[in-house]
Each structure stands twice: as structure tokens, then as C-alpha cells.
Amino acid sequence: MKLKALLLIALLVFASCKDNKETETVESIDYSEENLDVTTSTYPKNITKVFDAHGGIDVWNKMKTLSFTMDKPNGKEVTTTNLKTRAELIDTPTYMSGYDGSKLWVSEKDGNEYKGNAKFYKGLMMYFYAMPFIVGDDGIIYEDAESLTFEGKTYPGILISYEAGVGVSPDDQYIVYYDEETGQMQWLAYTVTFGKDGKSDNFRFIRYNDWQTINGLVLPKSIDWYNYEDRVPTEKRNTVEFTNVMVTDKTKDDSLFKMPKGATIIE
């Protein structure tokens, strides 16, 4: 008798649910008519705010080539990068260094001995220059960071870390500090773990407060390295200026990055 009663109750519940489903109206959306921002919807709101203040990550993702010049003690250093493959050419008066997508190489000029670390320097200045957009790469983890206060103003922070196996130094961490009102990036804190095991808590500081608009994107005109103490910047140490900046949706020919005859492959 109890079994029959339970079966009857179950049937009544099922019928009630079926009736409700049949009478429920679901709004149909024609997504072909919607203007969706698929790219930025994958990012947290705070980093999207920063991207937007610099022209937008969607605009950046259309770009294929970045080039800039820096004045160094041995002359002008010109860096050209394929933003999609990350092929790179660094051309200076005393050497060229390049990455063709598979091989890293160095070519010395006029008998000058190359004494740098090509593996460490590969992509380094491009990475600093392409802030904040470069932290829109795949394999990045975003977290809130403790705010930075400098000269009486407080900047919210976004901690950037990497999934295992991403890049040459996946233990590197960055903190992007931005103006809460405008969203514009103001500071970068970063660690250096190249050639070391594990993460570091020794954050160094770069100030970003000199911007220029190129092809719809707000990019650095110069950046300032700061001395620091107890994870806080103190006074300016030096400035690096960028000239002849070019960012475009055109691609340079692959031959630009090809290893020249006589160059040395860096393992």
C-alpha cells in the first residue's frame, strides 16, 4: 500500500514539472545580430579597464609588428618583433641578435665580442615596452595585489603570474599598478627568476607616466627604473626613452629574422 502511494506521488510531481516546463517561455536571442566583445570578456574587469585605457586589447591583438629604438652606450639599438610568432631582431652597431621562431642566434659585427646574455635579453625590452598589453598573453593568472602608495597617491594592483611551463621563466611575477580613476597603468613591479628555481619576492619597480598614442594604442614614450626598499619604490634611478616606434597590422618578411651566415646559435 505504501509503495502504491509513493508511486502516485512521484507521478504527480513529474506531471507538475512537465506542465511547468511546457508553459515556461524562454527568450530567444539572435547572436548574429549582437555586437559581442568576445576577447575582453575572458579577462577580469580590472585588467580590462587597464587595457581599455590604453586603446583596448582587441586593437592590440590586430597588430602584427612592433619596432622601437633605444639609445645605448654603444649606439642605437633597434628592436623589431613579430607579435604573433615572437620572432625578434635586435640590431646594434656592434652585434645583431635574433630569434627566427625556433633558433636564437647572435652575429658579432666588425670583430666586436658579444658579452651579453642573449637568452635572458631575448624579448626583455619588448616585454617592458608592450605593457600593459603583453600581460594579455595566454597562460596568465590574474589576482588582486596589495595597493601601492607613492607620494601620497594609492594605486590598485593586479598580480600577474604564469601557468607551469609558460615561457623561459614561468616563475616570474609582475604587478601592474594603475590609476583607479582613469585605468591608465602607472607602475610595474617585477621579479627576475631567470636561471633560478622557484619564485622570488624581490620586486623591482618601473614607473610608466610618459605615454604616446600610436595607431590607436597608448604606448610608452619613456619608462623610469626606480630604486626600491621593502617592496616600495624610492627615487628614480634611470630613464629609458623609445623613439621611432612603429606598431602595425602589417607583417615583416620572415627573412628579417633569419640567422645570417657566420652567426652563432645560442642553446
Write out key terms for the chains shown.
267 residues, outer membrane lipoprotein receptor (LolB), chain A, 5 helices, 14 strands, seven-stranded antiparallel beta sheet, alpha+beta, single chain
Summarize the structure in words:
- The strands form two sheets. A seven-stranded antiparallel beta sheet has the order 13-1-2-3-4-5-14, with no helix packed on it. It has a seven-stranded antiparallel beta sheet with strand order 6-7-8-9-10-11-12, covered by helices on one side.
- With 267 residues, the chain is of the alpha+beta class.
- The longest helix is centred in the first third of the chain and has 22 residues, at 2-23.
- It has a single domain (41-266), classed as outer membrane lipoprotein receptor (LolB), chain A (Clam).
- The chain contains five helices and 14 strands.
- The relative contact order is 0.15.
